[in-house]
Specification:
The structure holds two protein chains of two kinds. By secondary structure, chain A is mostly beta strands. Chain A has one helix and nine strands. In chain A, a hairpin with a 2-residue loop joins strand 8 and strand 9. Chain B is of the alpha/beta class. The longest helix of chain B has 16 residues. Chain B starts with a strand and ends with a strand. Chains A and B meet through strand 3, strand 5, strand 6 and strand 7 of A and helix 4, helix 5, strand 5 and strand 9 of B.
Chain lengths: 136, 380
């Protein structure tokens, strides 16, 4: 059985292709991600974001973040560093994301990236999260 | 409108002080500032105080004396201390008061700050998947800056090397030993490309200033640097700030660029007129980017300037002469006031062992979450 998403309204799969869901503010068309929820959400229209973009910047998380808020199931010893950064979706918005790669040294500003849905091993059960990976 | 002068400055050394509360350190700094001015607390007409994690700033009152003085607690993120100074500056500039004290202190737990998504209006998943760390923001911001402007990791190391060199010369600094460039470069990677020695740590400390109108200063027979310009500005669309799940494609100026321009305009001076500068160095990359954002160089020039030692003591523009946040740590309520304290020492020729010769104009810039910057320009 497929894992449930880490949050509702964060992404959707259309024709087998995953998309993040952003918000376009009704008053001035400013785009944001994620689409705001609750009262603030009424000011925004949902926008299906492009699954492809370019790497805007990145870094590597080298130590296990504190819990909370981090909810990874692994302990200090099981922690593996992960890359994260920002991906520019042309004409829309720049989104923050985990970056999937088996070689941090290959990452460079401007490289093509593609969205994928990835299982996240959360304490209490696996969930489905999103990440970008090099497209080439 | 009257000019505003700093006629007294006090500091409690930054670092770790297990036997003292944050409040103790704030009271200590306030008494030092009053003693420096040679004035009793009872003469103060107002007080503005800030603390982020060490309780209410107005808890200094029972210790300094319950004189009935107007006292206002200031809270403004990482610019809390700097904003207390701004409030005092405006109080005198407005003509309402002509003598008062501003104080900031703090005492943070060890290790990185531990923010909760809800406190920042962010969804829980953002923290759950591991995106809620200030260190990541700094790593990502300088990565892009380096890629676009030809800055190499060695420049990051040089900034930290200078900070610890200066800290070793500064009585109020926390890290008082020089650290070699190789050690800095090869220390544990925290958030690429920034290593452990390139990051400042949360710390403890207190700083305080006595402010006076021009008239009051002369009446009391005192002297002190004049505030030529002072401004706090917040983020605009297109600024890159901590804990941002998305950014605008159309980029805008940083709060530092806006605050800097406003302060230069007020002062009627430009970056080339500045003799000594204290700028926000939460990590090495921040100092490099802030050199350009405050107008001291063009983007990319830092690589050459750092190689030449331009920002070291004896260079063409000494920066963070007391070791900055890297050597002093960052107690949020006190950090911006420490910068001004250091400039006061420099402009009064009291910065023993780290004195910038003939310093006349001192510049300070504090920056931080959630995206604000405070600049003060002093003239001796």
């Amino acid at each position: 059985m497929a894992d449930s998403p880490i949050a509702e309204g964060l992404f959707e799969v259309v024709g087998g292709i995953p998309h993040l869901i952003g918000g376009r503010r009704k008053s001035d068309s400013r785009m944001v991600f994620p689409k705001p929820q609750g009262s603030e959400g009424q000011d925004y229209d949902a926008v299906r974001l492009s699954p492809e973009g370019t790497l805007w910047s990145f870094t590597v998380q080298r130590f296990r973040p504190k819990s909370p808020p981090y909810a990874g199931a692994e302990d200090q010893n099981g922690f593996q560093p992960y890359a994260l950064g920002y991906v520019e979706l042309a004409g829309q918005v720049i989104v923050e994301s985990r970056i999937e790669t088996d070689d941090f040294a290959r990452l460079s500003v401007g490289m093509p990236m593609r969205l994928k849905l990835v299982p996240f091993r959360k304490a209490g059960g696996d969930v489905l999260a999103y990440a970008f990976e090099p497209a080439a | 409108m009257t000019d505003v002068h700093i006629v007294g400055a006090g500091i409690h050394p930054f670092g770790r002080h297990d036997d003292k509360s944050g409040l103790d350190q704030g009271v200590f700094a306030a008494r030092e500032a009053l003693a420096d001015a040679g004035l009793p607390w009872a003469d103060m007409q107002f007080g503005f105080g800030g603390s982020s994690a060490a309780g209410n700033a107005d808890a200094v009152l029972p210790r300094l004396g319950l004189t009935g003085v107007q006292f206002v607690n200031v809270a403004n993120g990482c610019a809390t201390g700097g904003s207390a100074l701004l409030a005092g500056y405006w109080a005198i500039k407005s003509g309402e008061f002509d003598l008062g004290l501003v104080v900031g202190f703090d005492k943070h737990p060890r290790g990185a700050f531990n923010p909760e998504p809800a406190d920042w209006g962010l969804p829980e998943w953002y923290g759950e998947i591991g995106l809620m760390l200030t260190t990541q923001f700094f790593g990502a911001k300088i990565t892009r800056y380096m890629a676009l402007n030809g800055i190499t990791p060695l420049s990051l190391g040089r900034v930290a090397e200078k900070a610890f060199e200066n800290g070793a010369r500064t009585p109020h600094a926390w890290r008082r030993e020089a650290v070699g460039l190789n050690t800095i470069m090869s220390s544990q990677m925290v958030s690429d490309p920034l290593t452990k020695f390139m990051f400042c740590s949360p710390a403890e400390g207190g700083a305080a200033l006595v402010l006076a109108s021009d008239r009051k200063m002369r009446e009391l027979g005192l002297a002190g640097p004049k505030v030529r310009g002072a401004a706090v500005r917040t983020r605009v669309n297109g600024s890159f700030e901590v804990f941002s799940p998305s950014l605008d494609i159309e980029r805008g100026p940083s709060p530092t660029q806006i605050a800097s321009r406003a302060a230069y305009e007020m002062a009627g001076v430009g970056p080339s007129d500045i003799d000594v500068a204290q700028i926000q160095d939460t990590e090495s990359g921040a100092e490099i980017m802030h050199m350009a954002e405050n107008g001291f160089c063009a983007d990319g020039e830092q690589e050459r300037l750092l190689k030449e030692g331009a920002t070291r003591l004896g260079g063409s523009l000494p920066i963070n002469t007391d070791g900055g946040c890297l050597a002093c740590g960052e107690p949020i309520g006190a950090s911006g006031l420490r910068q001004v304290y250091e400039n006061v020492q420099q402009l009064r020729g009291r910065a023993d062992g780290r004195q910038v010769a003939d310093a006349r104009l001192g510049y300070s810039q504090v920056y931080g979450a959630p995206g604000l910057s405070g600049v003060v320009i002093l003239e001796s």
